[in-house]
Structure formats: structure tokens, C-alpha cells
Amino acid sequence: MTTLSGFKAFTDNLPKQEQLMPVLFIGHGSPMNGIEDTEFSRRWTQMAKEIPTPQAVLVVSAHWFTKGTKITAMDFPETIHDFGGFPKELFAVQYPAPGNPALAKETASLIHSAHVELDHDWGLDHGTWTIIRHMYPEAKIPVLQLSIDFTKGPQYHYDLAREINALRKKGVLIIGSGNMVHNLRMVAWDKLNDPEYAYDWAAQMNDTFKNLIEEGNHKALINYTTLGREALLAIPTPEHYLPLLYTLGLKEGKDSISFFNDKAVGGSLTMTSVKFG
């Protein structure tokens, strides 16, 4: 149990900073990116060198889809292997980063639009550890996850993210982990190694999403179902797209925007990622 003195100690150690931490939306793709040396994993490693070292990392992962909003609040979250059919080497990976119950409690206190449950049963799923182990391989920085409430619509998630913006002022790196375009049923398995191959609708929507992000047209991105048939093909289910809305909600007016890992995989997924700030 986190004591009040422990909570105070944490907040005392994270005074407000003049420089905001950036916010990242990262296309995580296949779990194999967690153990393979790919252009995507190499870019994650490089990104960690380009941004300030965070005091903690908070990830909104597509793979923690819950009824209600939860946040991991244990001292040492387990490494969750939430997939099947992959090599045993992937299941053997452990990422022993600490959690931070005090930060979990502080984050929950910032959110007034929902009751946030302090969770002690989940851990770090592959939407988190496959990325973070490349960025911070020593596993010394506390890592937490915030779940996505599947009973709520896109606007809710965008607005909820705005409530935790204060964490950026305390050195917390917030990451949305998903994929802008994510249609597993339409993957062209014979084109997995062709980074230039994308279905026309996938390439179109990837460009549309990027243009809307650059224009600051968050309303259109929130109401993505109105963007036509191509958008519904790109986002047949919302869990991999909603983490993007969290990062958009955290963006401030002066934040710069840059894209990375802007590639397609198997025709119907994109790894396109964004750095705000």
C-alpha cells in the first residue's frame, strides 16, 4: 500500500520543469519487434537518445482494453506475453522495470472525468515492453500503463488525456502505443518484407491522418468514422487507433510535430509514429 509520506516523497522528487516532456505515438506492429533488430526498433532506440531521460514512462497500450479506466499500481509489474504462435525466445523475454504506485495514485487524482482503479493484476503487455526495452534496456525507469475504457467513445479518450497533461511538466514520458492503420484480416502475408507495399486505402488513410495531425484538425481525427470507407477499413476496431487520440489530447499549441517509422507492413498496417514536442 502506498503511504501518504511515500506519495509526498514522489511528488517532491518531481518538481515542475520548464521544459515539457515530449509525447509519442508509436506504431508497435508485430511483437517480434521486441526482440529483432529492425528499422523500427532501431528508431525507438535512437528516439530515447534524442529526448530527455524521463523520470517515468506512462503508456496507453492498445492491448489493455478494459471496462472502466485502470492504471497499474504495483511496485514491479510483470511482463505479459499476450500473444500466441511466436518463437519461444519471445516468450522468454522479461522486462523487469519497476512500477511506481505513488505516480499511479497521482495520475488517478488528476483524472476527474472518470474513476480510475489502481490495478495490481495486469503489468506490461507487448504494446509496452516491446518498445520500451529498446528505448531503456537497463529497465531502471519506472513504467506504468493506463488502460483504455472500451465502453467510451473517441471524444472521451481525447478529453481524458488532457487531464493528465500536468505529468509532462514533471518529466513523465507519455506514449500511446497502437497503429494508425491496423487491419489484420487484410494483411498480405506474402508482402510482409516489402516496405513499399500498401493497399491504396491504407496509403490514403495514412496520408490523411498525417495531414490532419499537421493541420491540428483534431475534430476530424476524433470523428474518424466520418472520413469515409477507407477510414473504416483502416480502423475496423478502435483499440489500436485510440492511443493516438490520447497523444493528440496531450499536445500543446507550441509543440512541434515530427513523424518517424512511416512505413507500411503487409499492406494493411502502418508503423507511422509521431513525436509531439
From TrEMBL:
Necessary cofactors: Zn(2+)
GO molecular function, one term: zinc ion binding
Keyword Oxidoreductase on entry: yes
Keyword line: Dioxygenase, Metal-binding, Oxidoreductase, Zinc
EC number: 1.13.11.29
The Extradiol ring-cleavage dioxygenase class III enzyme subunit B domain, residue ranges: 37-253
Spans through the membrane: none
Keyword Protein biosynthesis: no
Gene3D superfamilies, sorted: LigB-like
Family: Belongs to the DODA-type extradiol aromatic ring-opening dioxygenase family.
PANTHER family: 4,5-DOPA DIOXYGENASE EXTRADIOL-LIKE PROTEIN
NCBIfam families membership: PRK10628.1
Protein name: 4,5-DOPA dioxygenase extradiol
